[in-house]
Amino acid sequence: MNYRVGIDIGGTFTDFALLKGSEVKLHKNLSTPQDRSLGVMEGLGKLAGMEGLALADFLDRCDAIVHGTTIADNTLIEMNGALTGLITTEGFRDEIEYRRGFKEDIWDVRLEAPKQITPRRRRLTVPERILHDGSVHRQLDEAALREVCRRLRLQGVESVAISFLFSFVNPAHEKRAREIVTQEMQNAHISVSHEVLPRAPEYDRTSTTVVNAYVGPRVTSYLERLVSRLKEAGYRNQLMVMQASGGVMTKEYIDGAPIRVLASGPAGGVVGSAHVGTAKGYPDLLCVDMGGTSYDMSLVIRGSAPAEAGWNMHHRYIIGVPMVKVETLGAGGGSICHVNNGQLQVGPQSAGSEPGPICYGRGGTRPTVTDALVMLGILSTDEGFAGGSFRLTRNGVEEAFAAIGNAMGTSAEQAAFDCWRVVNANMSQGVRRTTAGKGINPKDLVMLAYGGNGPAFAAIQAEDLGIARVLVPKASPTFSALGTLVANPMIDEERSYFVKATEIDLDKVKRLWTELADRSCKYFTDAGFKAEDVVAHYQLNMRYPGQNFSLTFNVPSNGRLHDFAFVESGLRDQAIALFNQRHMEEYNHIRENEIPEISGVRLASHVVTASPSVAAGFTRSGEAPRPAKTRRANLGQGFAETPVYKGNDLSPGAEITGPAIVEETFTTIVVYPGWKALVDDAGDYELVRG
């Protein structure tokens, strides 16, 4: 039997999900920040050993390896990307610094500007001008461009972003500029805006292209290194890479715009959540992922979390490519607890995997959330941690919290409990902001918790938010990795087209959709898929006059590439009706007397692939499970002897009444007082109040 492997690299752990028929096996090992591909290969070797195979034999039997990576995110967090220069139209040198009113949060007077990827000395302009209709107002000054390249070369620029005005309508100047930059700066990585984000507005396109240029060399070099190591080890198929849009695609496609992998790890978890929640009869979900470094929040409504292309703010930069909406806090197991001016704070700084929390015994000296869980008795130091890969220790933990306690006038145990309270409050407040921004009451949702630390906090957060049910899949510790196996190969691209909805040029719309369909067909067939298996969703971006942002909706079609029978005169009225319906769903009103305008056409295409099956339902066994032991622990009501259950001992139908702790191989599930844990027919957990 052949295998499919999903991989997700986090700040602390690299997660693996192995799909063998309907069986799923999980594995985690510490990430290797110096070269993350080493951690991937180490984990694949462990999976091969679990199957009793040599690595070469195991990889030879892998039909697919699907990879979600945080390399782009880490590059922006650590600000260690390529030395980047920007070449733009004369007169637009400072647009990237003006941003949109300079700040994304205009009410925060203390918010400093983000660090410039392209400071002014590396933002240079050339005379050229293309108008909004694509006509050339001023030819590209090639001599000036060569001088610009000379100046950038002298500054040691490694990557160049090229963004000219209205290049998404007529890319001729950008194409020629790329040829010249390639001649003048032979080793530079080049990003051109008409390929990265071929649409308006200008600032969004330039920002996206600059970030692509900044992270691109790191992403492509990492993927090339990983592909090379996989090939040398015996893997024969293409590496599939998770995208922020919620789909996967080949490395060759990602190379065209590496920014597509930004936030791809969290997107995998959302896709997996939608799959599991829908299968279990809970289509409306609050998805929370607490890992070693961060806490990610997202919403699944009616079984889907569509990718949005537009105002996507990540690491304080506008990213215009389609992205599943995920909000992130610096709150994970490695988040550092510290006192700042007499106030206890948790995060956003993280101990990561090196040196990691103090309890890892790898040289960490600053207390973290994971150390607090050890102090509270929620995590054990008696047995192996993270699948037995190492054991936690209390050495140095109590002393670190005693120092915090001294600063706060409390004991070490109280300081650890206060850290637990603060990080929990931070996460709950983050959820409130996320749901309030969407006009959604958390009480109407089911929480799905995953990540190595998510299940330890899920029930108490749910109680704070008024949520009555929490799903914790058995695969929750590596859920983003499992999500990559659920995600379908997908290409989601768009082209700008501005016109009143009543004046749509059907031939032009058809040409734009044909261009997108041709690109999809090429990349899917190159990846080994048949064109007839591609499912196409033809979409329009529309808005009312004066609105800054557009809404995207599907235009009914037969779902096949290059079949445009639906593009006929009735499309104009149909588009207006569909847009008004979408606007009502999003904003709860429509402008009946206004004619909306089209801002672009979009094609989201995918191929359906096999996904792990999910069972639903709960059949009570009637047998009360017995705890493996008890442990002194504080679950919010003071220290007490608390029953501890082993997840491997629990069969479907088991019911556990809190307070209790369930130790799974790679995570710990806390059943807080007033809650019950039910092991459903699939072996997954449902935490319910009462």
What characteristics describe this protein?
8-stranded mixed β-sheet; Nucleotidyltransferase, domain 5; 690 residues; 32% helix; Dna Topoisomerase Vi A Subunit, Chain: A, domain 2; single chain
Could you please describe the fold and organization of this structure?
With 690 residues, the chain is α+β, with helices and mostly antiparallel strands. The protein is built from 17 helices and 36 strands. The mean pLDDT is 91. A hairpin with a 4-residue loop joins strand 13 and strand 14. Helices cover 32% and strands 27% of the residues. The protein has 5 domains: 3-75 and 220-261, Nucleotidyltransferase, domain 5; 79-213, Dna Topoisomerase Vi A Subunit, Chain: A, domain 2 (3-Layer(aba) Sandwich), CATH 3.40.1360; 281-331 and 423-486, Nucleotidyltransferase, domain 5, CATH 3.30.420.40; 335-421, no CATH class; 490-607, Dna Ligase, domain 1 (2-Layer Sandwich). Helix 10 crosses helix 15 and helix 13 (412-437) packs across helix 14 (454-465). The strands form 10 sheets. Strands 19-14-13-24-25-36-35-32 form an 8-stranded mixed β-sheet, with helices on both faces.
